[in-house]
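Hey team,

Filing this mostly as a record. A colleague (T.K.) asked me to run one chain through the structure pipeline before their review meeting, and I want the input and output archived in the tracker in case anyone asks later how it was produced. No errors, nothing strange. Just documentation.

Input sequence:
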Amino acid sequence: MRPKLVKFCGITQSTDAQYCVDLGADALGFIFHPQSPRNLSIEQFRNLSGQIDFKGCIKVAVAVTPDQKLIESLISLGFEKFQFHFPLDLSKEEVKKWSELVGKENLWLAPKLKPSDHFPHDYLEEASTFLIDAYSEKSFGGTGQTADWGRFSNLKQEFPENLWVLAGGLSPSNLEEAILRNLPQGVDINSGVESAPGVKNTEKIDQIFSVLKKFTDPSGSI
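Output structure:
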């Protein structure tokens, strides 16, 4: 079955965004993290979004350990969902504050997990959605590395009340296998469809949707 949510992340160009929307993307991710090669400023996003017909496509703000000022700015820009990455030593009080600011139903938590780390179960009550990405010592995502699919599947089975989004190196070459093996409710696609960081490749996006068609039944439902 096709994932309920297909998100393209790291959008920096209006033409890329519109291409994804027109083909049927469910969500677009815009990154607000200065260390990312796909980073946008508030003003850059404001200018970019004015050139896009979202047609109901969900706008997701992506940030790393954001402070209240940034979150309030993102809310004012009209984002519907908020994907926040963070290290495990961040206090639960801070995560709880995020949940209160944007709403549990709108918060996507993406903890940075080493292979040896235990998943922080106490965060489950603060967000409806969790995103599992590949671990990198130097960054919080967008590395092109494949996530730990076994861990993802185990968490999805153990905590079915939450929505689980699979990220990390998804591309036309491995998306079908990722869906078949993990049955994710959502997939997050970034570097796997790029020509350069922040520059999407339309041919690869086409290939993604060709894969997704294999998981759509003849009636068109998902």
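Quick notes for T.K.: Strands lie at 5-8, 27-32, 58-64, 81-86, 107-111, 129-132, 163-166, 186-189, 194-196, 199-200. The first helix runs from residue 14 to 23.
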